[in-house]
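Aim 2 progress update. The chain analyzed this quarter is reproduced below.
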Amino acid sequence: MNNITANIITLNEQDNIQACIESVKQVCDEVIVVDSGSTDDTVKIATSLGAKVYSQHYLGDGPQKNHGVQFASNDWILSLDADERLDNDAITAINNLTLDSSIFDAFSFHRKNYVGKHWIKAAGFYPDTVVRLYNKNSAHYRPKKAHSSVKATKVRNLNTHILHYTYTDYANWMDRINKLSSRDAWAMYERGIKSSVYKPFLHALTAIVRKYLFKGGCLQGQDGMTVTVTTAFHAYMKYLKLNELHEKKTLNESPSKIPADKHQ
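Predicted C-alpha cells:
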C-alpha cells in the first residue's frame, strides 16, 4: 500500500461516512475527516473507524478541502466526498501505482453518478472526469467556494472509476438543486458578480443547448431530457437567487450566509 492520506469533508453524513472510509482504507494508510458541525453521528462513526477528525466551520468547497491537507502525514492526498466510493478498478490501479511526483503530480478518474441505484450516463454525466489523487506539494484545490477542482500540471487519467451516489431519488435531486443553487448564488455574490434580469434566462438557455444538443441529450431518452431540464433549472435558479441577494442589499437588508450543503 502506498502512503496516501484520504481527505473527506462532512456535514451530517452518518448514512454515508462508514462506506466512504471503508472504501478509502483499501488504498490509504491515513484518513482525515474535516467536519463542519455535524449534529448526527458522523463524527462518532468516523472516529470509531480510525479517522482523524477535525472541526472547521464550512469555508466553501475548495477552501474546506484544502484545510484538511495541513493535517496530512503523507504527501499524496486522495480527496473523496462522503457520498463517493472507489470502484474496484480504482482500488486495484491505486495500489499498483508507483507514486513519483516528478512524473505525475495528480491522477484523474471517471465518475459514475447515480440516482438511487440508477446510473445516469446521459448528457455529460458520464464520463465525468475528476482529479482526486494528487501530491500536496505541487497540486491543490482551487480556492473556489462552489464546485472547486484540483489544480495540477502533470495529470494522468487512470481510466478507472469513482462511484458517486449523488441523489437518493428524484425528489432528493430537486431538493439538492434548491440548496446548491443557493450556495452557488452566495459564492457569486461574494465574488462581486453583478445582478441582471437577463442572466437567469440566458444561462438556462445555454445549459439547454449544451446538454441537449452538444452533449447528446436529445439522443439519450429520458435521462438526456432529465439532465437537460435539471441543469437548466439549476442555472436559472442560481442567477435568480443572485439577483435576490443584490435586491436585499439595495433594500439595506443583510442576507444570511448560505450554510454548507449536506453533501458539500
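DSSP finds seven helices and eleven strands in the chain. The chain has two domains: 4-167, 170-250. These observations will guide the mutagenesis experiments scheduled for the next reporting period.
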